[in-house]
Amino acid sequence: MLVTAITTLGETRVAVVGLGNMGAALARALLKRGLPVTVWNRTAGRAASLIREGAVPAAGLAEAVAAGHVVVACVSTFDVADTLFRQVRDELAGKTLVNLTTSTPGEARRTAA
To answer: From CA 45, how far away is CA 109, in angstroms rounded?
Structure first.
């Protein structure tokens, strides 16, 4: 459903941050739909197979965020997402951040604020 929603936005560039099972699967599905996808993971080697499939690697989180109209976060915990994305708060202005990280309602409200 997320892939369908993103692909209906037209010429959308997507950045996927976090390339565990879910992030890699989402990046792969977006690539198969023909969207330009930039990928970044704290462990760079996790991007290798996606790069071979056409994803563009980002050297860092700020570069990944800058590359996408939509930024999809698939990291391990809310605290990790919070720590990462606070570093690039200004770069997120005008972009859509889709945070697929497990969190509580209170954590989600704190992020939204």
So the answer is: 33
Place 2 in a pLDDT band, splitting at 50, 70 and 90. Answer: low
Give the helix ranges, DSSP H, for the chain: 2-7, 21-32, 48-52, 61-67, 78-86, 105-112
Specify the pTM.
Answer: 0.87
- Any long-range contacts for 83-89 (C-beta under 8 Å, 24+ apart)? 84/17, 85/111, 87/61, 87/62, 88/61, 88/62
* Burial class of residue 25 (count of CB atoms within 10 Å of its CB; 0-12, 13-18, 19+): middle
Model confidence over 71-104: pLDDT tens digits?
999 999 988 999 999 999 999 999 999 999 888 8
Q: Find how far residue 16's CA is from the centre of its chain.
A: 3
Q: At residue 57, what are phi and psi to the nearest 5 degrees?
A: -80, 140
Classify the C-alpha dihedral 29-105-70-101 as positive or negative: negative
- CA neighbours within 13 Å on the CB side: how many for 30? 34
